[in-house]
């Protein structure tokens, strides 16, 4: 009989097939490649697609959750290093679609895809500096009837918010008891969030406005009621998404009418004062597909994601300054600035990509130059000059300083 590689023919074919079979098993879906001069890092430990991420309030950690049944906690101080370490928390018999840190950064909550409920994980520091993650024995009771779109924890630690795609927002205490049910009357909810100041819960959906409620507590910390605070009115079609600035004094929204808007929400709403519209910008992509947005902590930069691309706008002038195309192999599922505002994070496939926020540095340069002209005393001038120099240095190091 004929031989191939010293083996009988049918055997050699069999071994070839086995090798091919093994190769097919080994070949995972190709990791999407993306390069850009402003890409600061790519975090790649998940084996499944990442659906959500959250920066801790102390700025030390980033949590990500994926359909690989894990939540990963990354150290932000490693972001600009070559190695990116992460700690893994396993989600037993389920996977998390949403993740949020507790205000004290000692726990996080996740929304379970199959369980349709909230689970709390406690983080315990070990002697070696790592953490042990323990799920609390009881998950929250099931209350929502429609798929969940977002969860949030108030920075005061007084309540948790969950919102579903019907018109329901639930306000819970931390033990899993529902304090209040809010009907948004928007046909459906597209997005909902807790404000960084913890006073407000807001939602947008089928209607052309963003509705904002105040969650009221008594002097002794006891829950009282949820009351309508104010609305952002000005869009002419459904609102896809909105975000708060770090001090809750600004909000941004993006709508199916093809525009984004920046609002001053630092108003006396109890005296019926309405938020002021500060800026309207054009974003055609929003008229044909759902979009997400992130507002930098100082509200100077607006990031808009449509499909797998990201657009960065200067909110003072309304001009687009950066554009990142095909950042991920899938549609972008989450977008967020870190608490310093120097980095923008996005996820959508198995990686988190971090970008340098050059429009943010440019905005600081503009602002400081303006303030320097008006500065009256020397100590103020020195402080402003220092901030100006830092921002210029950052831009120079990124090759983004405009001549």
C-alpha Rg, in Å?
24 Å
Q: Which term fits the overall shape?
A: globular
Mean pLDDT: 90
- Share of helical residues: 10-25%
Count of discrete alpha- or pi-helical segments spanning 4 or more residues: 3
Percent range for β-strand residues: 35-45%
Number of domains: 1
Query: N-to-C terminal Cα separation, in Å?
Result: 77 Å
For the record, what CATH class applies? Mainly Beta
Helix and strand composition category: mainly beta
CATH architecture: 7 Propeller
- Which residue ranges are poorly predicted, with pLDDT under 50 across at least 5 consecutive positions? 1-7
CATH homologous group name? YVTN repeat-like/Quinoprotein amine dehydrogenase
CATH fold category name: Methylamine Dehydrogenase, Chain H
For the secondary structure, the number of strands is 30
- Largest β-sheet summary: 4 strands, antiparallel
Strand order of the largest sheet: 3-30-29-28
What does this structure look like?
- The protein has 403 residues and is mainly β.
- The chain has one domain (48-401): Methylamine Dehydrogenase, Chain H (7 Propeller), CATH 2.130.10.
- It has helices spanning 9-26, 358-374, 378-397; strands spanning 3-4, 7-8, 39-43, 50-55, 61-66, 70-75, 86-90, 96-101, 107-112, 118-125, 131-135, 148-153, 160-164, 168-172, 178-183, 189-194, 200-205, 209-217, 223-233, 239-244, 250-255, 259-264, 276-282, 291-295, 301-306, 309-314, 319-324, 334-337, 343-347, 352-356.
- It has a four-stranded antiparallel beta sheet with strand order 3-30-29-28, with no helix packed on it. A four-stranded antiparallel beta sheet has the order 4-5-6-7, with no helix packed on it.
- Helix 2 (358-374) runs antiparallel to helix 3.
- Residues 1-31 are annotated as: Disordered.
